[in-house]
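Hi X.,

You mentioned you wanted examples for the new student's onboarding notes, showing what a folding record looks like when two proteins sit in one file. Here is a clean example. The first protein comes first, with its sequence line followed by its structure tokens.
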Amino acid sequence: MKKHAFHLDWEFRKEAAEEWKDIILPHDAMLTETRDAGCENGANTGYFPGGKYRYRKKFQIPESRDAENVILEFEGVYCNSEVFINGEKAGGHRYGYTNFYIDITDFIYTDREKYNEILVKVDNSKEPNSRWYTGSGIYRPVHLFTGGKAYIHPNKVKITAENGDIAVETNYVSSNENISVHTEILYNNELVVISNTAESGVQQLKIPHANKWSAESPNLYHCRISLLEDGEILDSHETEFGIRSISVSAREGLRINGEEVKLRGACIHHDNGILGAATYEDAEKRRIKILKEAGFNAVRAGHNPLSKAILQACDRYGLYVIDETFDQWYIPKTKYDYASIFEEDWKMDTTAMVEKDYNHPSVIMYSIGNEVSETVNERGIELTEKQADKVRELDPTRPVTIGINLFLNGFAKLGMGIYSEEKIDKKEKKDKSPKKEKKNQASGSEFINNMMTAMGSFMNNFGRLPLVDKATRDAFAKVDVAGYNYGSGRYRMESRKHPDRVIAGSETFPGDLAKNWKMVKKFPYLIGDFMWTGFDYLGEAGLGASTYPGQENSNPKPYPWLLFGGGVIDITGYQTPQAAYNKVVWGLIDRPIIAVEPVHYYPAKPVESMWRHSDGLASWSWDDCEGKKATVEVYSAAPQVELFLNGKSMGSKKAGEANKYKAVFKNIPYEKGTLTAVSKDKKGKELSKSQLESAGSSLRLQVGAERSSLQANGQDLAYIDIAFTDDQGIVKVLENRTITVEVEGPGDLIGFGSANPYTEESFLDPFQMPYRGRAQAIVRTAVNPGTIKVYITAEGCEPAEVQIAVNESWTVHKRETVLVE
């Protein structure tokens, strides 16, 4: 079928509003809500409420035999959507994270000169329904497909490719028995192999000397399929795929193309920082590129199916993927979550994920759930097997896993922590009374977060108990890879307890990386480590943050906490020193990394979360902090490091693997100048060094756009990084004055903000305060070419300007639905 652009000329309103507003998809309606300290979603969504929303668009179907069948694809709508065409309900979908297709052929006007109208109703009003920021509305792309009487369904081509043996299964719709399928495989735009025209929907091809796909060598092939009748092409379909094999065993670990692979993993949520949940292709590609640059070679979905754009980016940049179906089964974690529809919809939504993922070589594993306490009882264990079998039925080429929190399963075995409507109702009543609520009222999501925060790294050791083994072993027996959430205490035991078990550290504390990675390297059955998290994210507000005086250190944290506050990469894509620490542990950096805890809070020390092992910054610019004492961390694989301040030694300390790759220097007197860290071998010989410089007295706005040209398609994005610096470009982390952004030309400011986890500012406003000297603006192109001019101003600084060329795009024209593929 032919794929058409379908993101322009939409209108949007909240259900209770009368006025429609012009928008371009994708669109996160939750960002348009006013944050409310008293909303039922609370800290889960960063105090954003949900709501009911309406989207509509007028469109025409071309007068052509290639438009006799019309299908709409929605990649993601949060949530409970209903789709109407010309006033008649054509379909809908309840889960907010799986894509779905609606055949609208019988609902469109036969008179092709008439405009059709689509109306999409979205209901995200029941709160809370998630443990994190969900977004609302049509937050992922929508596509229109048109085809003739005979057509290839856009989601029904499956390519199985191992060792050069290619099986192409083409599912098509036709009443004609004389249809044949013709397949071509290309590599770097050159024809590699062509099939003999056959009447079968499945074709076997062989590619000699195939270029295999892996994270290190992400080689992609292009498949072009034609549907023929008497030599005439009736329909065509094109897709990318990679050739690679996967195997897992306790003795040989994870092998990709026969070679052992250890997964340097990051868990990620689905939001795109200051864009909210809006899933732009450019945003997803950028996120994956940054994760790759930060040294990760794998991502785990947390805890719902990833977008198509993420998977495509992982295919092209080279990252392995564990895609995950659900965070809830039939036992809820919040009052209105997926558990209410799980029994009816899990097979459909599991199928949607697997069909979406099938042709993406980056996907090496499917996860059927995250921290589902059902796995402690007989019904849940049977359900584990049913789901795993369903996934294997849909795709027998990839292993199945599940992420089980060993600590929480142990408590669930004792009947503690499982969500209870009675407890929640009682809690809600007590919240409204002056009496202090008893702590034992927490259940579900709140219980999970409370206990994990309180127990910290002890959770890993708790997993050693026989009770925990009993609470997890039967469910783990039903999957191919056992995903341990915060269960590293069992890693060494399992070769004896469960000699055939393959393990992945599916969720771990970043501060445990050194000891975890040592075990990953040692034990073949332990195939990788996935830290929580790679990127910071919206919601679960403050749970992963370091807190300082004036910020309440409770759980859940109160308004105006907005972000999780952890993540080794912040929501703007800035890699903190903790990301560099990972690379030191992984052996990807051979120089020392310096991180300085915020000096201006001295003598107060941060209260650190288990999900953030350091709040150190790569900065020695702390204005007006002379005389205060600094805590300096140096990350190095060398046996020892020596720290110098303005040429004077501050002492030497052990580092390297024996000291978890970290040397901590306390009570360093702050004075402006140069802070230098020198890595040394055991004999004291210098190996390498790094330094931080203090900023000078000058102040300027340093502004840089990550792209200098875009396409006029209403989708391309320009990320503009803004920082307060001196004339040498050294960031002033304590500079705190309002930044204003104005955009002229064929583009719109669609996001502006910072990585501040504790703020009342809106990402939709054109003025923001920086966080630690930095902010970020995101500009989206319009559909006409020209030059975008972005003006950035702040009091006391020379204005800055960025110009971005917008080139004409053949894929989109204003008020037309045109072919994009």
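Then the second protein repeats the pattern, sequence line and then tokens:
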Amino acid sequence: MQTLREFTRKTKRGNILKIVREHYLRDDIGCGSDLCKYCFQNEVYQLTSKHEIASSLFKFPHYLVLDTNVVLDQIDVLEEDVLHNVIVLTTVLNEVKHKSSSIYKRFNEIIHDRTRNFYVFVNEHHKDTYADRDPGETANDRNDRAIRMATKWYDTHLETSQSSKEFEQSGMANTRVVLLTDDAGNRAKAEAEGILVASASEYVKSLEDFPLLLDKLSHKTFDNEKQALPQYPAHLSMKQVLEGLRLKKLLQGAFQASRENYLEGSVNVETYEKGILIQGRECLNRAVDGDLVAVELLPESEWSAPSEIVLEEKNVYADDVPSEERAEEEKDMLKQVQQAAAAASAERTPTGRIVGIVRRKWRQYCGILQPSLIENTNRHIFVPADRKIPRIRIETRQAAKLQNQRIIVTIDTWPRNSRYPQGHFVRSLGPLGDMATENEVILLEHDVPHCKFSEEVLSFLPKLPWSITAEDYAKRVDLRELDICSVDPPGCTDIDDALHCRELPNGNFEVGVHIADVSHFIRPGNALDKEAAARGTTVYLVGKRIDMVPELLSSNLCSLVGGVERFAFSCVWEVDKEANVIDKRFHKSVIKSKRAMTYEEAQVLIDDATQQSEIAKSLRHLNRLAKILKKRRMDNGALVLASPEIRFQVDSETHEPLEVEAKQMRETNSMVEEFMLLANITVAEHIAAEFTECAVLRRHPKPPPTNFDPLVKAARYQGFQVDTETGLVLSHSLDKCVKEDNPYFNTMIRILTTRCMMQAVYFISGSLQKEEFFHYGLAAPIYTHFTSPIRRYSDIMVHRLLAASIGADSTYAQLLERKSNEELCHNLNYRHKMAQYAARASVGLNTHLFFRGKEEDEEGYVLFVRKNALQVLIPKYGLEGTLYLKTDKDGKDGVERTKSEVIFTFNEEDHTQRCGNVVFHSFDPVSVRLSLDSSNVQHEKLVFRLVKPYIKGFSVETSTDADIPPTKKTKKDTKKKN
């Protein structure tokens, strides 16, 4: 049966376009129920009488139909293995897909779980359930009517099926169909039409066998709260916001909450380089970190300056009205900030207030329950692990069980009469402090996809046993006889690059970089490809790896292990003895790595002159050429930067850190890096020439001059002049920053330089001008990522472009779509940033575990001088920490003091701290005592206390035994304790 669907669409020019589409209806779509005698069922029954749910509201067998709002709001309830025999209408499924891709994905996983008995009924193509849109009817009203029609049809259809004498004689009660909706209008119409209906909350409360399911209910408001006094200004309506943005009375941007001050944040707006400052609870107006908000700029006379005050919210409970103490605290904070701004008017920044929310970016949050002062209450305060997130009010009946547990909570709403947002409990992660639990928190808080790969994803993997066929050999260049080897960190199993170098008859060298051909196994558009694109990158935690692709590929079929034939994508150059590229070529190949080595093993082979194997010769040639390439890059203005990096030795059973040390860099590290850089630049030039509009590239913007201020000032007071005009002069300046009495000084200068840099990002060539392609850190006019497709999806995209350009693979529509590739790049930039943050958090966690129960005195250097602290670097461990100089609030006279009344004076001009005759500059040597402060169970921190130089009343008092240096004695004492 054919019908016509008509709808209108407004074009970019403002014209109204009428669209007519054919819509086919059928009479052979099955209902999916084992009670039905009429429908043709082409698969196993999904709606069965095996899973009957006991409900005090509906005391008879029943199926459920879900309204769209129930799926969107109550997905955490639906994910519990409680509800069965659920009819999912395609009308609802399409609405969910349109409104929330993340919930759609979660809902789809439930539907595909055959044990849950969720049946998708194609009501939009069934002749008895299709609802045409009436004139003047909104799309939402039409969808609501379609849902009611389908529910009514199901109820009548099943009644007819159960009206036979055989069924009556069986003594079974009739199965009915119940609509769950939280839409008051839809519910009223359903009741008027004789449909059984209930809200999600009513239905869940009626399930007497599952009382804890109530904890997972999404709450739009808590009981007895509607009459509470407003604590925040009302948000503008979306219509008002859009009008304000159009008239440029309002500005739009992403809100970033302060980690140090819960009453401060900023909104990133394109037209303001440093964003718009937001201060005070009312001006923050219920914005949560990440939300897209509308901001009203305050008059310039009311602009303020960012606060340097660290202000944490004290233990408070779900009071409806803020206490006088809290109100006074907020006023006091704002007064101090305004006084600071008045004293330094040049530092005033554009300040505003949030007047509306454009789009919420709420997610699930990890944290702990705060112990309640009220006995036998279900209402509790949840404290997120992320300091930028406000506390959340939840209702739970298992508070006693959840104490000292890490739990997950999500926000449902934030009414203006509630001090905190309101949410609900999702699940418990495990005991606080447990290694597995804390790793899970890191992954969740940094939005790292880490669930197991689905069956659908795994179905696109090659079937084992897998082997290279004669057809494969015919399509590829055979390089199995070459002396190819790989050089990687110890324990590396996802080996995605290998190299070779051999001398040619003309005296030149053939150098090859061979990269795992992951794109051969991951075809565009399938579930495996979509999952890899969503993950974006492999995430490395201490002792744990979250793969971008399944292990069969990452550690087996794609990994270029020694002695095994593998598919590769090869970039091969002919270079002369001065490393000048004479010729280049790309081809898909078959290789057989002769050896997989660690950096240390390769270095030993290079340094041992008695080793004359082909692999040893190849490595020596590569190492010599790499030094020439590196010098050439440096001469062009490339920067050699540094960052403190830690390597942990982890217990194989407990996964706890046994030893920690700074990572060692060898010549072989640099050797591999140089040829990977050369391959990336060579490929970037090629794909940008072939695909001028859609090449995937990577750029590193030049930092604004103000970014370098801390570096320039710190170097100046050490007697060095750092010029930041260009990358080349900066590089030369850094080379000159050398102190004979402090071999670590140059490394610290480079670490400080790294902090001044901008983030490197992926982009599409057609979106920027060629001069903006520049990679500042590498001094390369053009750059991309080609060399790590096992762990970066960007490299898979580049492989596909390169393969298409040389005829090794076919093109496809999305490969050349600029817009879709730009969206992919945005996701990759986000995923890479989160992966970096997660890795740092993992290092922090393991550092805390290593120092638990220990105290050690170590030599370090002042990296930064802050207003109330010194940032100290410990070279032995490659870690940083903060040595706080001011531990009490300002005195009445405004002077900041430590608890011992030792006074430190901060000089803003030369960035120094003075206490008596002791002056601290950046890069000064210090001795500090390291210990772990576990007083805050959720936020343990490594404490730095000064040992040397000695300041009476502030430094740690050491033993009077002068023959035993504090460092050695502390370590000996620690060993005795252990």
